[in-house]
Amino acid sequence: MFEVIVLAIALSMDAFAVSIGLGSKDTTKNLGSKAGIYFGTFQALMPFIGYLGGRGVLGWVDAYAHGIAFGLLALIGVKMIYEGLQESFEEDIKAITHKMMLILAIATSIDAMAAGFSLTLLNVNAYLACLIIGATTFAFSWAGVTIGRYSGTWLESRAEIFGGIVLILIGIKILIS
Q1: How confident is the model at residue 63 (pLDDT cuts 50, 70, 90)?
Q2: Residue 152 region, left (φ>0) first, then alpha (ψ -120 to 50), else beta?
Q3: Which of 1-10, 61-70, 144-153 has the weakest average pLDDT?
């Protein structure tokens, strides 16, 4: 279960970083809850979809499953580190609408679908794991909006880099176990 908690924290870093950017732009009172609901819901659903896909192909790729999980997590981790080193796109957002939140929620959770494949290799209840990932993302998103409101965006890129490093480390652990 420890791996699931660490995975949940790492996966929530994208949403956390975006939430910091949103919080620095908008001081709407319910934005934290709105971000938490959107990001948490999608971060819970996408790994479950990845888990189901992984279960479907696990028999075919069983001999390579650990390598595939490592590759996916490492790729996602490197992508998050790269994005953390780039300029954020939140400056381009003019208004925080439901449509914009939906687009951001999908964009920040696509990586979680690939990471969901790794759940097939961990001895965990996938439903509980996805619930933990969603709840963790809700909490980090809400906190991100609050932090962004008071501190600006200085923590935004660091969160993505941290999440990327953690995903790579989880991938290495899966590879050597």
Answers
A1: low
A2: left
A3: 61-70
| Cα atoms in the 13 Å half-sphere on the side-chain side of 96 | 23
User: What radius of gyration do the chain's Cα atoms show?
Assistant: 16
Instruction: For residues 102 and 168, give the distance between their C-alpha atoms in angstroms, rounded to a whole number.
Output: 27
In the chain, how many domains are there? 1
Instruction: Work out the pLDDT band at 157, boundaries 50, 70, 90.
Output: low
The span from the CA of 15 to the CA of 140, in Å, is: 7
The 3 state secondary structure assigned to the chain is: CHHHHHHHHHHHHHHHHHHHHHHHHCCCCCHHHHHHHHHHHHHHHHHHHHHHHHHHHHHHHHHHHHHHHHHHHHHHHHHHHHHHHCCCCHHHCCCCCHHHHHHHHHHHHHHHHHHHHHHHCCCCCHHHHHHHHHHHHHHHHHHHHHHHHHHCCCCHHHHHHHHHHHHHHHHHHHHHC
Domain membership of residue 92 as a residue range = 2-24+31-176
Percent of the chain with pLDDT over 90: 19
In the structure encoding, which two tokens stand for residue 176, read together? 């050597």
Residues 170 and 6 sit within 8 Å (Cβ to Cβ): yes
**CB-based burial label for 175 (10 Å; 0-12, 13-18, 19+):** middle
